[in-house]
Amino acid sequence: QVQLVEAGGGLVQAGGSLGLSCTASGRIFNSYSMGWFRQAPGKEREFVAAVTWLGGRTYYADSVKGRFTISRDNAKNTLYLQMDSLKPEDTAVYYCAADQSGRLSSAWNQYSYSYWGQGTQVTVAS
Question: Which pLDDT value is given to residue 27?
C-alpha cells in the first residue's frame, strides 16, 4: 500500500523556478514508474513527466521538455520535479502518482497509475 504526499507548491513569477517533492509512505519497488501530472482550472488532467524507479529513465511531455526535470531519491523514497523557466500556462495543481506496471511507454496515460497524491498548487504570475 502506497501513500503519496506532494509538497513545494507556491506562487512564482513567470521565468522563475520551483521544486516539488513527493514522499511515499510505503516502499516504491524497483519495478515501479513514478510520474507527475497536473490539472489546470477548467482543463483535464495532463501528463507532465515520468521516471522509472530503478533505472531512472525519463519521459517528458513536449510542453515541459527542456524546462522541467524529474528525478528520484530511492533511499529517501522521494520523487522530485524541478521546474525552471515557468510560464503562466504551467499554473495547475500538480499530482504525483505511482505506476505499478513500470512501463514507461504508457506513462503518459493517467489510467496507468494506481496511486495518487493529494496535489500541490503551483501558480505562475505573468
Answer: 75
DSSP structure string for 61-75: -TTTTTTEEEEEEGG
Q: 37-44: list long-range contacts, CB under 8 Å, 24+ apart.
A: 37/94, 37/95, 37/96, 37/97, 37/110, 37/113, 38/90, 38/92, 38/93, 38/94, 38/95, 38/122, 39/92, 39/93, 39/95, 39/119, 40/89, 40/91, 40/92, 40/93, 41/91, 41/92, 43/92
Over range 18-25, report the average pLDDT: 96
DSSP 3-state helix, strand, coil percentages of the chain (rounded to 5)?
10, 50, 45
Q: What pLDDT digit, counting tens, does each position of 52-70 carry? A: 999 999 999 999 999 999 9
